[in-house]
Design brief:
The chain contains 9 helices and 15 strands. Helix 2 packs antiparallel against helix 3 and helix 3 crosses helix 5. It folds into 3 domains: 99 residues, Helix Hairpins (Orthogonal Bundle), CATH 1.10.287; 142 residues, Heat shock protein DnaJ, cysteine-rich domain (Chaperone, DNAj Protein, Chain A); 110 residues, Sandwich (HSP40/DNAj peptide-binding domain). About 5% of the residues have low confidence. The strands form 6 sheets. The protein has a 4-stranded mixed β-sheet with strand order 10-11-15-14. A 3-stranded mixed β-sheet has the order 1-9-8. The chain has a two-stranded antiparallel sheet with strand order 2-7. It is of the alpha+beta class. The radius of gyration is 32 Å and the shape is elongated.
Length: 373
């Protein structure tokens, strides 16, 4: 399988390009390779798809950050890419959504659908480990109850827009010295609805929508990371006069944990040990996200040793397997000692003084090498 091309290379921009530079570069390529300008040209279609895919990633802050850090692999499981092919329908849908048509890319055209919305949901690490359903209430435009979203006064009807013949769009042909341009723009007469109201609804004034509230249930899979998001189709703002609703992007924000640090699907925590436990070893109880576990401490363990508890980390998002819990040992020295403890430590000291000291051979060799002339 061939390696995907770099998105910055596709748009012909540097990795430090700002939003305006990204948009300008995409506009140029969309104008050049749009299917309306290149009917039946499969090579042009591929270049249009490629440019639109690059635009969809680089103009979105979350997608761009994931791509900059991890490349194409960073987009898997994030609500974009994930190994799924980006076909022509995806490209045209994204193009129409962001620019409203070939005319809107030059500032023309009107509203075609409800606006997209975005919310954030905060999660604890324990919730990430199990996944959950979260119910949220959103204030947003909803369908008018009186006219059921049509915008027409009850009992009245509508007629097909004579300008666009009900399509909601009109095609404009412009001939220039470099060729013919065909722009599909939102019909200004019906505002993209395709129909003209005989008598507008008095409650929503023909909009077909009003301010309201909707309760939405979000199923959050286990293993999500901070910045991952879920796109809920049709859960954004309701469109005018029955036009399609926008989408809702649910962005996940994972709160920091008091004990554990996340490293992919593994969890890392410091594991404090008393000098006696470090010297003698034995079993110790340690906290996990779902309770306690027992870890076997080897005798003579030193600070910095990593002890692994398999399967005590986080689940793989949309996949199989669970990460591990990694415990970094830290041998602490007590600062306050009772009289009995002082006696015992003094006795240990006397025993240690009687043992012949064997320097670390590797360390000794390094020191000798450093002073060799």
């Amino acid at each position: 399988m061939s390696r995907p091309r770099d998105y910055y290379e596709i748009l012909g921009i540097g990795r430090d390009a700002d939003d305006d530079a990204i948009k300008k570069a995409y506009r140029k390529l969309a104008l050049q390779w749009h299917p309306d300008r290149n009917p039946g040209d499969s090579a042009a279609e591929e270049k249009f798809k490629e440019a639109t895919e690059a635009w969809e990633v680089l103009h979105d802050p979350q997608k761009r950050a994931a791509y900059d850090r991890f490349g194409h692999d960073g987009l898997k499981g994030s609500g974009f890419g994930g190994g799924q092919p980006f076909d022509m329908q995806d490209a045209l849908r994204a193009f129409m959504q962001d620019f409203g048509g070939f005319g809107d890319i030059f500032g023309q055209g009107g509203e075609r659908r409800g606006a997209d919305m975005q919310i954030q949901i905060r999660l604890t690490l324990a919730e990430v480990a199990t996944g959950l359903s979260r119910t949220i209430k959103m204030k947003k435009p909803v369908a008018c109850d009186t006219c059921t979203g049509t915008g027409s006064k009850p009992g009245s009807g509508s007629s097909t827009c004579r300008d666009c013949q009900g399509a909601g769009q009109i095609r404009q042909v412009h001939r220039t010295f470099i060729g013919q341009f065909i722009n599909a723009v939102t019909c200004p007469r019906c505002q993209g609805g395709g129909r003209i109201l005989d008598s507008p609804c008095v409650d929503c004034r023909g909009e077909g929508r009003r301010r309201g509230e909707e309760t939405i249930s979000v199923d959050i899979p286990a293993g999500v990371a901070d910045g991952n998001y879920l796109t809920m189709r049709g859960k954004g703002e309701v469109g005018r006069q029955g036009t399609p609703p926008g989408d809702l992007a649910v962005i996940f924000r994972v709160e920091e944990h008091d004990i554990f640090q996340r490293h992919g699907n593994d969890l890392l925590a410091e594991f404090p040990l008393s000098p006696s436990r470090a010297a003698l070893g034995g079993e110790e109880k340690v906290p996990t996200l779902d309770g306690e576990a027992t870890v076997d401490v080897p005798a003579g363990v030193q600070t910095g040793r990593i002890l692994r508890l398999k399967g005590k980390g986080l689940p793989v998002l949309n996949g199989r397997g669970i990460g591990d819990l990694l415990l970094r040992t830290v041998v602490f020295v007590p600062t306050k000692l009772s009289s009995k403890e002082k006696e015992l430590y003094a006795e240990i000291g006397r025993i240690e003084e009687k043992k012949p000291h064997k320097p670390d051979k590797a360390l000794f060799d390094r020191i000798r090498e450093a002073f060799r002339v």
